[in-house]
Amino acid sequence: MTAKDGLPDRATLVPIICASAVTFLMNFLGDKKAWRIYMTIGNILSSTWNKASKHATVLLALLPVPPKRLGIAARDARQRQVNNETFCKLMEAIFAPMVALRNNRLEVECVNGKVQLCFPRIAAWIVDNLENVTLDNIQQNQCAVCEVRPEQLGSHLRRSGAKRDYRK
Q1: What is the pTM of this model?
Q2: Alpha carbon distance 3, 13 (integer Å)
Q3: Residue 82 neighbours by CB distance under 10 Å
Q4: Which of 132, 123, 166, 122 shows the shortest CA–CA distance to 146?
Q5: Which of 2, 47, 66, 149 is the most buried (most CB within 10 A)?
């Protein structure tokens, strides 16, 4: 094992890059939306990655976004809570194979015929701010990184707020 990164000698780290975007299905179903979740790996050259014909990015899931229900505020709050819980469970199911690989390694045959020891790790998630708010289950006026109060956002204080603990 190497001291720096904990990987065995001659091993390859495979950075997994995920992305998500909301798609409006107006042409098909009125005001309906779906949430696309994509995955690619960071070891792919950008000249290959940018060609749609190379299929370097795969669609992992196409999740329906429940429509907003108008009505009593308590019922709407409960519906949002149910939606968030359902979304979290779906994300856990989608990424369960990646979690299973966390402490394991993959032996991948390279184009030269040699077998390479690979360790896949989720390295990045590309989203816009509104999707980040949904993924992190925070309010729109909160920072996704630290626990600074909303009125202090953008104040560029020398001392930043405590880092957000996502395990909570």
Answers
A1: 0.69
A2: 15
A3: 11
A4: 166
A5: 66
